[in-house]
Input
Amino acid sequence: MSTTIHTSPLPDVEIPDQSITDCVFASAADHADEVAITDGASTSYTFSQLHGAVRSLAGGLSARGVGPGTTVAILAPNVPEYAIVFHAIALAGGTVTTINPTYGPAEVRHQLIDAGASWIVTIPMFLDAARTASTDTGVEQLVVMGKAEGAVELASLFGEPIDQVPVDYASHVVVLPYSSGTTGLPKGVMLTHRNLVANIAQMEHTFVPADGEVALAVLPFFHIYGMQVLMNMLLAFGVRVVTMPRFDMVRALELVQEQRITRFFAVPPMVLGLAKHPVVDDYDLSSIKQIFSGAAPLGADLAAAAAARVGCEVVQGYGMTELSPVSHCTPEGQFRPGTSGVTISNTEIRIVDADTGADLGVGERGELLVRGPQVMKGYLNNPEATAETLDSEGWLHTGDVAVVDDEHHVSIVDRIKELIKYKGFQVPPAELEAVLVTHPAVADAAVIGVPDTEAGELPKAYIALAPGAAAPTLADLQEHVSQHLATYKQVRAVEVLDAIPKSASGKILRRELRDA
Output
């Protein structure tokens, strides 16, 4: 069986042999007095101050025993200090595990135990939850950013500045983010210094910021998209990062206007809001030069609607936690509607038939396989899951259905496990969702397959209504869908919800819909 490998159309890049922290701050001296990260209100650090704080906290942590073999959990929203804590742990030679602050105690506890965390760093608001979750785990030290009784204050831990504690960049696991868990218990994804450094270097030809650019960082730092793209890559490229602890449309628009945001990193629900929310018209968004969407497929019509309203390019990329996270991105000026851009530098892909494993060519749909220096080391404590995802030749099996066109652009069609089998036909939920949200009465949509004795599965739509809109009938939606998609790709049932359930990274939680 012959192998068809699609290579990147972009030139290869050199991957520095350095730690992620040395990579992020490699050009800090060039921007020493410029603001590196701010919450847009009370807290700001210049590049010089940020790098100094990282080195000082690393020294304090190292003096207290944090180093190779130590795992420190961060349970916090996006605040400027997140970057200090993250990189201080890395510089000291430790491993960071980033925890979703919306998790319940049992979920936090599972991650603390699985990751082997002995420290946890949090904020006063989450202190009680952190204390409850860490009871009877390996956690020995509870640290709080700010002031709180009964916990060590982060400010007390700063010490003599140090440089990178020696580790093997190719094998040392610097961060353990946990996969979203939309298809089961979250798994610890082992990412090395080299994985993270490589992925930043690989963005050289797709992200080319001008001097003085400012980016909004509302996507959570605990998630690989926020951690690597919004925190690490932006700082490495000298872009000012404006943090938001949670997404609020009005506050986001205020920050765009006040801080003159040039790069708006989003997930599809945010793009939907920018396209449809009436409050958008009340703010000056003229500074935005690009909206970048990731974490879930973005429909071409929705991207076009947001682009027309905001007056800038709306593009998307593709990646996953196991890819550190980017494998596909749209170079500026090369946007093609509905695609996730081109394969980035130093990366190869294959499109294979999910049933036979046979390689497919241009224009054919199959599972996307990725190989490159950004591919994870494996899943922590889970050799079975690692073997299922990462084959012996280094190909990561993404579980996503994709197609590559004759211009090297890749479109993500759906998840293999989420494809709906209707009378033998494969119906991708994402395609239906992209069409449904273009209906004027629909603010958001999700589609799942429900069992049916005759058809196998029926595509059922869950919709959230636009403000003031009357609920459309099933016939209304079917008429709308029929104008865009093949006859078999049709909604067969509909239910109105107050909101579509989603993870913190914007992925639709179809499992919740199925369970309901």
In short: The chain has 14 helices and 28 strands. The chain has three domains: 19-168, 214-415, 420-515. The longest strand covers residues 442-452.
